[in-house]
Specification:
The complex is a heterodimer of chains A (394) and B (381). By secondary structure, chain A is α+β, with helices and mostly antiparallel strands. Chain A is built from twelve helices and eleven strands. Chain A has a nine-stranded mixed sheet with strand order 6-7-5-8-4-3-10-1-11. Chain A has a two-stranded antiparallel ribbon with strand order 2-9. In chain A, helix 2 packs antiparallel against helix 11. The longest helix of chain A has 38 residues. With 381 residues, chain B is α+β, with helices and mostly antiparallel strands. Helix content of chain B is 53%, strand content 17%. In chain B, helix 2 packs across helix 7 and helix 8 packs parallel to helix 11. Chain B is elongated. In chain B, 46% of the residues are buried. Classes of the chains: A alpha+beta (394), B alpha+beta (381). At the A-B interface, helix 2, strand 4, helix 8 and helix 10 of A face helix 2, strand 4, helix 8 and helix 10 of B.
């Protein structure tokens, strides 16, 4: 294969020639590395997806400070606090606005199959910019009408069709879908979400009958505070913690999201399961790449021995294999990114989870792939280093 | 004497053999872990129902799985009680309630079972102890599941804390486990359930448990109940309900999807690794294989050798993979404080063995193509 590079004479790009010598072998090798990287992408992707999905609603909320009931340790805990705490908070210097958010689980009837499944209902005053997602902000006026809602287009398929214009039932009362937005599922909302106005919220949840806790607008699930531009958020959080009664807990939005993530990572079985699977995929990757590099070394056994005999040092040989490992890591990584991109898309489609490929994560996996290749390269080359040329040709 | 060619080919390069086996071991391990987690999902579902003393269950058609149950009128079990062949009917109330860890003061969602203590709802031996039952009859008392996550705090009898902001005392212990949906459970009397789940009345129940007379066919009874009872309840035998719960977890949740994908990925890993090993072996011994061919050995002989190699790799990889999986299962149970009961079953062990053998043979067949199709004349030219 002619090399497009203009290299100084007498310089042989050995690692490159070694790799490209046998095309079929090269393809298998690249496939192997790509697969090892893909494996990490899959398990790490799911692990992150479960955590990211958990906090995506929190991150999309348009505020800087979050007020919740003190015993609401995570989004699963259905505990509310008194709305007057928000009025109190609003009186502090630096707090611009305070928005109450009401959350409940409502029984939604799939208009096609007539099956009833639980959905998470998120309600707020449509005039408050609480959840500035397209599909919500442009429906402000229609959401103010009675019996209307917008539905999460990424809800699970069991929810049924999510187009505007559908009429079905929520909590055994009629509801009209006037639009949809895109959010996705998580553990607290395993099937999906709908958003409605606070006035509609009490239509559905204020008169639940004697056997259930009915809701009013005077208790709030999440309070959202926005601060004046230039204010010190963490200073304000400290002041509010100090001054507001002890029945509420106050966090900056990032702290709140972090707390939620840590809960899922450390205090649930899911966290353990995925950490285990991710670390296993790394080890599997090392073994896979080792096989590939070892094959290469074994194939060129005589050539390596010849190099040694004509005076190449162990350092040279090590460099060759390391360079091969790097080239494999580089080339193998590219298809794995592309395939994981497609895989993430289809898995997100199937589960409604948020599978994100961020630059940082791709970079981390790239580094892991390189380390994987280097470790396996270092193990594979050992045999060449200790070999005596005389033995090889003997 | 016949030469064990396959074996000699494999052990010729010790390091690579070790790496090859390690590859198979990890593929086996990955399959075992994913299947184990999947199994734990269904095991926890069945464990709960199998611990219940009932042949037939009534539940609301809106109930997805045990922790998201919808109540239905208690009259349905009274209607069922009037049918000939029904021995006993028992109401069961369930639900989440916030348990305060007495040490850290942190609340966590606790799954609660409430029932009339005179009904033998659970087969748990601890609940037949008259002293425990007497104490559970008292207000604000519960029995605590030993298989609850440590985040719930100490489990000793006599511990006092808060359940839904109401005082509570632990007066007994049992072992049940809640699995993926609930990582801590308590049992309480129906009277206490009324207290903690106020304003919910006892006249709507989550599950109706039905025991039938000996000699009555459960399936016929289910059909009859289905016909007689209104449509606001569904009727199933214990086995059917367990299966329904299992299917829910595996197909309707993201977790089920992820683990099934995990099994598939692990098998592909295994195929790729074994392919690499066998392909290398064949490339390295191309001359020897060609010589064999030139001497008159048929293609089936070559197939046979590579398949034997694949089989040896499969078995040598399966054994440590199996042992490691047992170790990791133990680790998982310890790390999740017994709430995730991953355990080896004979069925799974056999299934993975077959899968491993198939995986190795598949890679063997793919890799042997080169040797089979080679013309000895070309190899030596």
């Amino acid at each position: 294969m002619p090399l497009p590079l203009r290299l100084p004479p007498r310089y042989t790009v050995l690692p490159w020639f070694n790799l490209t010598h046998d095309k079929r072998h090269l393809l298998t090798a690249i496939g192997g590395v790509a697969f090892a990287a893909l494996l990490m992408f899959i398990f790490l992707g799911f692990k992150n997806a479960l955590y990211d999905s958990q906090i995506q609603l929190l991150q999309r909320l348009n505020g800087d400070i979050v007020v919740i009931n003190k015993i609401k340790e995570n989004m699963f805990v259905p505990e509310q606090f008194a709305r007057r705490r928000l009025y109190q908070a609003q009186a502090f210097d630096g707090v611009e606005d305070a928005y109450p958010i009401y959350i409940a689980v409502g029984n939604w009837k799939n208009p096609d199959s007539k099956k009833v499944i639980p959905l998470r209902v998120i309600a707020f005053n449509p005039d408050d910019p609480v959840l500035p997602l397209p599909g919500i902000v442009n429906q402000t006026d229609t959401l103010k009408l009675p019996w209307t809602t917008v539905i999460d287009g990424r809800s699970r398929s069991e929810v049924g069709p999510t187009e505007a214009g559908i009429t079905t039932e929520l909590m055994e009362q009629q509801i009209n879908v006037v639009g949809n937005f895109s959010l996705g599922t998580d553990f607290a909302a395993g099937n999906g979400n709908i958003v409605m106005s606070d006035q509609n919220f009490i239509r559905y949840f204020a008169r639940l009958g004697p056997e259930k806790d009915s809701r009013t607008l005077s208790t709030v699930d999440i309070g959202l505070l926005t601060v004046a531009p230039g204010s010190d958020v963490s200073g304000l959080v400290d002041v509010l913690r100090d001054r507001l009664p002890d029945d509420v807990a106050i966090f900056s939005k990032d702290e709140f999201a972090l707390r939620e993530r840590i809960y899922w990572e450390e205090n649930t079985n899911i966290g353990f399961v995925f950490s285990l699977l991710t670390s296993m995929s790394f080890v599997v990757g090392i073994i896979l790449v080792y096989q590939i590099l070892y094959t290469d070394v074994a194939d060129h056994w005589a050539e390596y021995a010849t190099l040694k005999a004509i005076g190449y040092t162990n350092g040279h040989l090590l460099m060759i294999v390391i360079q091969e490992a790097m080239v494999l890591a580089l080339i193998g990584f590219i298809p794995s990114v592309i395939v994981s991109y497609l895989l993430y898309d289809s898995a997100a489609e199937a589960t409604g989870l948020l599978l994100q490929m961020t630059t940082e994560r791709a970079l981390n996996i790239f580094i892991a792939t390189v380390i994987m290749c280097l470790v396996s390269g270092a193990i594979a080359v050992r045999k060449v280093l200790i070999a005596d040329p005389a033995d090889v040709f003997g | 004497m016949k030469t064990p060619l396959a074996w000699l080919n494999l052990v010729h390069e010790k390091t690579r053999l070790v790496a090859a086996i390690a590859g198979v071991v990890f593929a086996v391990l990955l399959v075992f872990m994913n299947l184990g987690f999947m199994g734990a999902l269904s095991l926890t579902a069945s464990q709960i129902y199998e611990q219940m003393n009932a042949d037939i269950f009534l539940y609301s058609p809106k109930t997805l799985e045990i922790t998201t149950s919808e109540p239905f009128p208690i009259e349905r079990i009274y209607q069922a009680a009037g049918i000939k062949g029904v021995k006993r009917v028992m109401p069961l109330y369930v639900g989440y309630v916030q348990w305060k860890n007495p040490e850290t003061r942190v609340n966590r969602a606790m799954f609660s079972y409430g029932f009339n203590l005179n009904d033998p709802v659970f087969k748990l031996p601890e609940l037949s102890d008259p002293e425990t039952l007497r104490r559970l009859q008292q207000p604000d008392t519960v029995a605590f599941d030993r298989q609850s996550r440590p985040e719930f705090g100490p489990q000793d009898i006599g511990i006092q804390t808060e359940l839904d902001r109401r005082s509570v005392e632990i007066v007994g212990q049992y072992s049940l486990g809640g699995g993926f949906a609930a990582d801590g459970t308590v049992i309480m009397s129906d009277q206490n359930y009324r207290r903690y789940f106020d304003p919910r009345p006892l006249s709507t129940i989550d599950f109706g448990l039905i025991q039938i007379e000996e000699g009555v066919d459960p399936q016929q009874m289910v059909d009859m109940l289905d016909k007689i009872l209104p449509e606001d309840v569904a009727v199933m035998t214990q086995a059917q309900l367990t299966e329904r719960e299992r299917v829910y977890w595996l197909t309707n949740t993201s977790i089920g999807f992820i683990f099934s994908l995990g099994v598939g990925v692990a098998v592909i890993v295994g195929v790729v690794i074994v392919y690499q090993v066998l392909y290398t072996d064949i490339s390295n011994h191309m001359i020897e294989y060609s010589t064999l061919k030139a001497m008159g050995y048929g293609r089936w002989f070559l197939f046979g050798i590579v398949l034997q190699e694949a089989l040896i790799l499969a078995i040598l990889g399966y054994i440590p993979g199996f042992a490691l999986a047992m170790g990791l299962y133990d680790l998982t149970i310890k790390a999740t404080a017994g709430t995730l009961p991953v355990g080896m079953t004979l069925q799974r062990a056999v299934f993975v063995l077959i899968l491993t053998v198939m995986m190795c043979c598949l890679s063997g067949l793919v890799s042997v193509q080169k040797a089979v199709n080679a013309d000895p004349a070309e190899v030596f030219s």
